[in-house]
Design goal:
The chain is an all-alpha fold. It folds into two domains: 30 residues; 74 residues, Orthogonal Bundle (Cytochrome Bc1 Complex, Chain D, domain 2), CATH 1.10.760. Helices cover 57% and strands 0% of the residues. It has five helices and no strands. Helix 2 crosses helix 5. The chain starts with a helix and ends with a helix.
Length: 111
Amino acid sequence: MQSWVQAVAGCFATAFLVSTVLAQANPPTPVAHTDNVAAGKRLYTSYCARCHGLNMATTSAAVFDLRTFPKDAKARFVESVTKGKGVMPAWGGTLNDGEIELLWAYVSAPR
């Protein structure tokens, strides 16, 4: 009876080891952030498009062209949206952190 228990324990240990090795060799594919981008686009349309244009395409030289916003400047984006900048009002009292994250997902998404 003891050898049967040892055999079963050995099988479980081998299965665990194999699954661990396979998981490391084939890490899970990152979840696409298309849902966040779509949600960000909806927020953008509601709050930002009035000034920055539909799909971030503005014809005004007075408004920042968000299509050219640096993808490595998230902190700058969050601060600008939260506190306002120039004639842009502060949205920190209107949008919560999660909504600002969704806006960033949309603005920073590849075009």
